[in-house]
Amino acid sequence: MYTKSLIAGVLTLAATSSFAAASSCGKVQIADMNWNSASFMANVDKFILNNGYGCDAELIPGDTMPTSTSMVEKGQPDIAPEMWTNAVSELIDRGVKEKRLSIAGKSLSDGGEEGFWVPKYMVDKDPSLATIQGVMKHAKEFPNPENDAVSAFYGCPAGWGCQISAGNLFKALHLEDAGFELIDPGSAAGLSGSLSRAYERKAPWFGYYWAPTAILGKYEMVKVDFGSGINQEHYMNCITKDSCLDPKVTMYPPSPVYSITTTEFAKRAPQAYAYTAKRSFTNAQMNKLLAWMEDNQADGQYAAENFMMNHEDIWSKWVNKDVKAKLDKAINNL
């Protein structure tokens, strides 16, 4: 998505920042996105920037499109900790080229993961269900709970970008011909609820889901192999478009998930910027953290404080010894 020269340029800024004269971090606005992993990450950034780098950081509400647009056009907020860039790649590319945005680093080192999934307990009984051919052959094993004459495929909630991609792949795979009905779960809670109920009853389930999420941290699921590999170009130019007339089968490519900052912030606070370039989670780490959040009904702030107290093994790799000493002191005062 991003040219090597663009990424090299912004990463060079992070690499050389430790040699730059420290400047006042000042006020920092951090986008608090409306999903758990992003809200958690925003609160971690607020705690570390305030207590480790002397920033005056605050959270403001955010979402992918309005936040990225505001950062390019208005220079605020300063940081978007978890930006799923597939949906706004052209805007972010323009922001980088115009030197308005900096790509700090990968907030999710594995990238976001999407796919069609079935429970592991089903695959343990019948390994063929790990493939789309096996799922289609055994479509009757996935009855729609409201009409068992058809099989159920749980799609992405209406209004989400993934509703388009899941719908196009449902069409490309000819799942309707195999007897499946595309079910709109209505919301993220509806989708996760359908999977949770099935898993707790060891019942069948087949549908779209993504990682990192609490659900995939709690329940072992198997991503169904379409046998197609990844066609990145077709995915971006057709599968993700509601105007796609002839969708072809492709696995979901990993979604690049970056920490994005304004270039002004990167220049004004190079040491704080260097931290945002290092702060990264694996999907396995984030799945477990999100499962903890759900089990404890924790909001982003509570989860961030718990993370700082109990996961020094992760966050201490992002900061130097002096900053770590300041953070240790702040943690002791929680």
Automatic annotation (TrEMBL):
Residues 27-308 form the ABC-type glycine betaine transport system substrate-binding domain. Coiled coil: none annotated. CDD domains: PBP2_HisX_like. It comes from the Bacteria. Pfam families: OpuAC. Residues 1-20 form the signal peptide. Keywords: Signal. This is ABC transporter substrate-binding protein. It comes from Marinomonas arenicola. The lineage of its organism: Bacteria, Pseudomonadati, Pseudomonadota, Gammaproteobacteria, Oceanospirillales.
